[in-house]
Specification:
Elements lengths: L1 H17 L5 E2 L8 H10 L6 H21 L6 E6 L7 H10 L4 E7 L2 H14 L4 E2 L2 E2 L2 H13 L6 E6 L9 H14 L5 E7 L4 H7 L6 H17 L8 E8 L4 E8 L3 E5 L4 E5 L4 E8 L3 H11 L2 E7 L5 E7 L1
Parallel strand pairs: 1-12, 2-3, 2-6, 3-4, 3-5, 6-7
Antiparallel strand pairs: 7-14, 8-9, 9-12, 10-11, 13-14
Helix pairs in contact: 2-9, 3-4, 7-10
This protein binds N,N-dimethyl-L-histidine.
Amino acid sequence: MQEQTDAREALAEEVRTGLVKTPKRLSSRFFYDAEGSRLFQEIMHTPEYYLTRSEYEILDTSKDDLLQLFAADNRPFDLVELGAGDGLKTKILLSYFQEKEANFTYVPIDISQSALDGLTADIRRQWPDLRVEPQHDDYFNALDQLSAGSDASKNHPRLVVLFLGSNIGNFSRQETNDFYSQIYSRLRPGDQVLTGFDLQKHPAIIHAAYNDRQGLTKAFNLNLLRRINHDLDANFDLSAFDHYEMYNPENGEARSYLVSQKDQTVVIPALDMEVPFRYGEVIHTEISRKFTRTDIEQLAKATGFAVTGWFTDCKGYFVDVVFEK
Ligand code: AVI
């Protein structure tokens, strides 16, 4: 209940500040209510959205190499997953690590208690012997706790942080650097981070991934307006807005917009706001960054990490990279 109130408050603040900006802006962080999460699951199965399949292939073909890195020197490790979601891809690793009798604990971290409960119950059903220690918290608080806990004993497990699924692509450049610096400051030498980065490729392939023919990405983007109607009692007419995606191959940024299809004014009584839109005016809702190898190597260097593992799919579309402190 508190979780819901906090989420509503955060959305209210985003709408209050984002819809008076020029250009208007709402963060993709607010896409993921129950319906948004369901739509994202569907997007992952569309033929155009190659990211999930590419990463699935990587984890499957590289699981043994990853285990060698994570369990180097026979140290036990904590597999700490940031924003675990339904853990579908992570289960490839969990299953293999269990089969190999690796000495590890799975620590999914999520701010959604219901997502964590579902995932934990599911894992306990599938692998009753696997040690799972879910943490309902903000990523950095949870990492603070884990690294503080490890100070107490000399034989602390290595922390292996997972940040999969190109979630990093939804951060701005500055946020990306800050994120790795923050993680770095919480790790000890020898700890690792495994990140899924979507790579730059033919622009048409990227453009299509955010413009699927079934219109699921459009529904996903428009769902943000439905959520604002529902949570803040607004009167967005969803049929008067369209989805527009733009990929810029010069900087690797895919951007999603909602476009007003006419002159209109939206009323949000809960915030005492009236928001005018011109025909053709946009709300910028998401950035999905695509990386080059150089970008990733520079990111590691700038934040203090060494790149110790590089795993791509057979098409070279996506990469899972190990950074080590
Ligand atoms: C969650 N995130 C990595 C997805 C992406 O590719 O940026 C969200 C998404 N947006 C549109 N389609 C999928």
